[in-house]
Design goal:
The protein is α/β, with parallel strands linked by helices. α6 packs across α7. A five-stranded parallel β-sheet has the order 2-3-1-4-8, with helices on both faces. A three-stranded antiparallel β-sheet has the order 6-5-7. The radius of gyration is 17 Å and the shape is globular. Helices cover 48% and strands 15% of the residues.
């Protein structure tokens, strides 16, 4: 099973991809996680990528494509994988199609989480994260401890630079311009599954599982 998740930043793609990853025992491949790890390690790629991330812009295609191709060729991806955050442009989608052709594989489905822009902005600007373990908090629904230390590992809790209001608004604009056209692209291929992402995590997950199980050859 090879899946792609689409949706605004903060629409819940990572959460839902993780749940499916655990069920099907296939890796969730998040380009955001890969990039943030590179930034934290201050690798050459990380230093370059941080300039784009801090502005709420997408990293260049050549960086993203290289990372993804390398990752899906690792042994744990042999049975399938879930792409979270890739492709983000039509050019990346074309390149992914070429990769699938070379690997003699087919994309199973593209899951698009549909949610209002206003709600996404509220989610992202309220989000906080542990700098050590990556645990997420939300000032509205799951506020961090008063100590501002993670109750899981004790790490410092902070707001990511790409979750600040001005950056969030720019990320939304970038999505509208570059990523939203992918819905038409994959819709024309008959691969698009549109899911209401404004519901609870469990309800969204149940809807995704139901839609996937309706596809031929899925068990």
């Amino acid at each position: 099973m090879e899946l792609v998740f689409l949706g605004y930043p903060g629409s819940g793609k990572g959460t839902q991809a993780t749940l499916l990853s655990e069920i099907h025992k296939i890796p969730k491949i998040s380009t955001g996680d890969i990039l943030r790890a590179a930034v934290q390690a201050q690798t050459q790629l990380g230093v370059q990528a941080k300039k784009y991330m801090d502005r709420g812009e997408l990293a260049p295609d050549q960086i993203m494509i290289g990372l993804v191709v390398q990752r899906i060729n690792e042994p744990d991806s042999a049975r399938g994988y879930i792409l979270d955050g890739f492709p983000r442009t039509i050019n990346q989608a074309h390149e992914l199609d070429r990769v699938f052709l070379d690997l003699k594989k087919q994309l199973t489905a593209v899951i698009s989480l549909e949610i209002e822009k206003k709600k996404v902005i509220e989610r992202l600007t309220s989000r906080r994260v542990c700098e050590n373990c990556g645990k997420l908090f939300n000032l509205t629904t799951e506020p961090p401890p008063a100590s501002n230390r993670c109750d899981h590992c004790g790490g410092k809790i902070y707001q990511r630079s790409d979750d600040k209001p001005e950056t969030v608004l720019h990320r939304m604009e970038v999505y509208e311009e570059l990523t939203r056209p992918l819905k038409d692209y994959y819709g024309a291929q008959g691969k698009l599954l549109q899911i209401d992402g404004s519901l609870s995590i469990h309800k969204v997950h149940a809807d995704i599982v139901k839609r996937l199980n309706e596809l031929p050859g899925i068990s």
